[in-house]
Design goal:
InterPro entries: DAP_epimerase_AS, DAP_epimerase_DapF. Belongs to the diaminopimelate epimerase family. GO terms for molecular function: diaminopimelate epimerase activity. With 257 residues, the protein is α+β, with helices and mostly antiparallel strands. It has 2 domains: 2-113 and 244-252, Diaminopimelate Epimerase, Chain A, domain 1, CATH 3.10.310; 120-232, Diaminopimelate Epimerase, Chain A, domain 1 (Roll). It is 16% helix and 44% strand. The protein has helices spanning 27-34, 72-84, 148-156, 196-207, and strands spanning 2-8, 11-17, 44-49, 56-62, 91-96, 99-106, 109-114, 121-123, 126-130, 134-139, 167-175, 178-185, 190-192, 214-219, 222-231, 234-243, 245-251. β14 and β15 (222-231) form a beta hairpin. The N and C termini lie close together (11 Å). The structure holds 2,6-diaminopimelic acid (API).
Length: 257
Amino acid sequence: MNFYKFQGTGNDFVMIDNRNKTFPIDNQLIKKLCDRRFGVGGDGLILLENAEEADFKMVYFNSDGNESTMCGNGGRCIVAFAKFLNIFEDYCKFIAIDGLHEAEISGNNVKLKMSDVDEITENNGNFVLDTGSPHFVKFVENLHEYPVYEKGKEIRNSLTFRENGINVNFVEILDKNSIFVRTYERGVEDETLSCGTGATASALAFIKDKNLSEVNVNVLGGNLKIYAKKNHNSFKNIWLEGLATQVFFGTIDLNNF
Ligand SMILES: N[C@H](CCC[C@H](N)C(=O)O)C(=O)O
């Protein structure tokens, strides 16, 4: 079995061209392929498959081996992967678990259209919203020193969120249109170097009461840019932009893995 390793601002994925539908979807196999010592290593595994009314379909699994909701950085990486496979020229449409996405690629830079966000709810100064995956957003000071793993794990496993889980984003405001975000990711159950749907959620929480439509988001693994059109407490025309690159490729004999 051929696999490709891609990363988008440090969020990394095992990518498989599964248009022939031969990949054995097995949670334990996916978990082992994502294992950083016993496997290839990755925050998740992504299958690229054929789609009726789009250029391709994205199927996303977290590194715990379970299929999950939309992955923004994974979406940017599958666009770069599909371009590498010559599936499209510079603009594509693909189907993911949260619906149809458009994307543009220029070199290693990918701009991905995210699902609309209908509502941001607030609970004692924090924010909860769904950008294709569920996110909790908390604004803090001195984010570099903040205990992201401990506090993120605590919120993700709290009574409110324990059953379905949630991704937990901690945000420091850098200037009038820039934020720094660190994320504890559901299904990875650890901090990742970047979370695309999390960066998007954090940016929307940041601009919800501002007259701003572009946000620079610094993450540990690089820089992202989010564009959004606000409409009261909802957002449309949301785009996530950043670099996505192929790191290496290889083959695995699944009969002896
Ligand atoms: N772990 C997330 C999905 C991947 C999100 C992240 N990798 C992104 O770039 O959006 C979840 O299960 O909700």
